[in-house]
Design brief:
Largest sheet: 7 strands, mixed
CATH topology of the largest domain: Rossmann fold
Number of domains: 2
CATH architecture of the largest domain: 3-Layer(aba) Sandwich
Number of strands: 22
Structural class: alpha/beta
């Protein structure tokens, strides 16, 4: 795409430092009206810092920003919104107890005589929804919607502000299945055709190549590459992000499963799953594929005792009994939730406390806790200033490693992993794959739920597909393809 005389967003030598850490160093960026521009980089590369400066969360320490040629230096998110900058976060802020319309206009409710104008609220929300999801009713309760619909509501909220000129999408497909991704792409293209400039942040390079026209890569707070997507190989983007060529995943020897350690027969929950039967053996990685809302997550939560089992039988090492997280941990079964911020980590606690939370007693000597944490930090390659750093200060990939590290510290025999690579970068994803491989080689049993079918094909020995709450038979991964998994997940014969 040819350069334009006046970019929609122009950033020159942007600087930002936090304490002794330089988050951004002389970063340049230019985006044209109507352009979808991919902002790429590993976790901790500076992407979030840059977008937070553009959207008014942080002030810049140096450099300049311009919107359509006019100086852009917002002192708050509200000021950035008034300037036409909207952002949709990977972890959107929503109020499930409110209606769709109330969420779309949250903080900007129209009033009349000092009261919220309900008729205008619904009308304004309907106009915003028409751009992204006209089938969603403004009167629907947000808490009753699925992940894809909730994301549409947050996108409608971003577009509800008048004069949106720049839209930032942060990992917009992290929790979406393939059909929802296609629908999002249609919306993005439609918005770009109206002249809105879009910053698209994603770790999925195949998506970037389909939706973006240009890219910028950040590494260690610096811009290390920019150009047209067309003609740029994914391997080159990976090399720019990591600083060196990323080889293929290490070859592993074929695995032979041992004894059955976890099994279910006609398992059902209050709502989902409707029926799930499987056997998981020691030294095996079993994958569960399915679309959003199929019951994949509910299955793992029922196994771990977080949701009630209303029918069927679940056995751990051939033993049947009441399920609770405490009992499952005592049996050597651990869970890594897909929602690491709300369920996987204690954000205000340190890295050391999170790594040892389920194993060491509260009265343990701090020195022993830190020593255990240091061993896990080194083993997993967690990038942190030390065991005492708050876990919330880590990048997404390193937070995920901490969540996985807690299972290693607990020395579980069965690992339940729900979307273990959601929202993490290419190298961190490879590290997680290697860890799963290592666990299986040690004789541990691993049950993985993932929205990425290519991921399941790479790391799993067998894969079962869940469709509308029912789990199909497990099939050797070598006999499957992404296309076949998608057809089965969609219920197409």
């Amino acid at each position: 795409m040819a350069e334009v005389a006046t970019p929609r967003l122009e950033i020159r030598r942007l600087e930002k430092t936090f304490g002794g850490t330089r988050a951004l160093a002389a970063v340049d960026l230019a985006i044209a009206p109507g352009e979808v521009h991919a902002l790429l980089g590993e976790n901790g590369a500076g992407k979030s810092t840059l977008t937070k400066i553009v959207s008014g969360v942080y002030p810049a320490d140096g450099g300049s920003m311009r919107l359509d040629g006019a100086l852009h230096a917002p002192h708050s998110p509200a000021e950035a919104r008034r300037a036409g900058v909207a952002i949709v976060h990977q972890e959107p802020f929503v109020c499930p107890h409110l209606s769709v319309a109330e969420n779309v206009l949250l903080g900007a409710e129209p009033t009349r005589l000092g009261l919220v104008d309900r008729a205008r609220l619904r009308a304004d929300a309907r106009r915003a929804l028409a751009l992204v999801a006209p089938e969603i009713s403004p009167d629907a309760a947000l808490g009753c919607l699925g992940p894809a619909e909730v994301q549409s509501v947050t996108l409608a909220r971003a577009l509800a502000q008048s004069g949106c000129r720049l839209l930032i999408l942060d990992e917009p497909t992290a929790s979406l299945a393939a059909p929802e991704v296609e629908r999002l792409f249609q919306v993005v293209r439609r918005l770009a055709s109206t002249g809105i400039a879009i910053v698209y942040i994603s770790h999925f390079l195949e998506e970037v190549q389909r939706i973006a026209q240009r890219f910028t890569v950040l590494r260690d707070g610096r811009r290390v590459g920019t150009g047209d997507i067309e003609g740029t190989a994914p391997s080159h983007l990976v090399e720019l992000m990591s600083g060196h060529a990323l080889g293929g995943r290490r070859r592993r020897a074929p695995r032979t499963g041992g004894d059955v350690v976890l099994s279910a027969r006609d398992l059902a929950g209050p709502r989902l799953p409707l029926s799930a039967s499987f056997e998981l053996c020691a030294g095996e990685v079993l994958g569960v594929a399915g679309l959003v809302g199929s019951g994949r997550t509910e299955l793992l939560r029922a196994i771990f005792g977080l949701e009630r089992v209303v029918r069927g039988e679940l056995r751990v090492r051939a033993k049947v009994g009441p399920a609770s997280p405490t009992r499952r941990l005592a049996q050597g079964v651990g869970l890594v939730s897909e929602d690491r911020k709300r369920e996987g980590l204690a954000g205000e606690l340190s890295v050391a406390e999170n790594l040892t939370l389920s194993k060491l007693p509260a009265w343990v000597w701090p020195a022993r806790e830190r020593a255990t944490a240091r061993r896990l930090i080194e083993r997993l390659g967690i990038k942190t200033s030390g065991p005492d750093q708050p876990v919330r200060a880590l990048s997404g990939g390193n937070q995920q490693k901490v969540a996985l590290g807690r299972l290693l510290n607990h020395d579980v025999d069965v690992a339940l992993l729900d979307e273990p690579t959601r929202g993490i970068d290419v190298r961190s994803r490879a590290d997680v794959y290697a860890l799963i491989d290592e666990l299986a080689s040690q004789g541990k049993a691993v049950l993985v739920v993932s929205s990425q079918f290519s991921e399941l094909l790479e790391i799993c020995d067998r894969i079962a597909v869940m469709h509308r709450g029912r789990l199909g038979p497990a099939v050797p991964a070598a006999e499957l393809t992404e296309h076949r998994l998608m057809l089965d997940a969609a219920g197409v014969a």
